[in-house]
Write a structure and sequence with these properties.
N-terminal domain of TfIIb; alpha+beta; 20% strand; globular; 4-stranded antiparallel sheet; single chain
Amino acid sequence: MKLLTHNLLSSKSLKNVKVGYPLRIVAKDVKISEKEFNMEFVTKMIPKLDWKVLVEAAIQIGHGNGLPEQLVDDYEEDEDLLKKIHHILMEVEVINGELICPETERIFPISSGIPNLLLNEDEVS
């Protein structure tokens, strides 16, 4: 599971969950795969991200080094920062681990890079 995907996931469909975001990550197996740097893609994705959630997720899986706590205003001009963001979004992948609902502590497994957020019938709101 890429952190780009994580940035979009929530457990809001769970019964009695109001927000369900962000899900906490417990990574058991993380893989790094080099991808060609695409400055335009990264620059266009940044405004769509919840920056604070991305940084926290990167820290949770041990790859938060070098990411600023707050996104700088002129990030489009900072190629080094864009490369760090590209790395965390496109090259770092949680292969096995867990996503945990912040309100209920319900655990969702990540297996072979795929998060399983399927709910049991009695868990649906």
